[in-house]
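dumping this here before i forget
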Amino acid sequence: MQGLAAWSAAGFEMLGIEDPYVWVAYLLCILSTILCVVYGLMHWNRGDETVEATDVQWAAQEDKVEEEL
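structure:
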């Protein structure tokens, strides 16, 4: 990361933040937010998983246990 050290040594600052590592942290936060939004939009209303017989049996057993309580 010699580039970041040189950037800081040159006295370059943006919006009053002198430390380039702080800028990297901000940049990574913004990029991860954008990535999460894109992922969410791509998988929006994708559909449910198929219901298997074991799922139905488990739900019936759960209903039975809840009724006993």
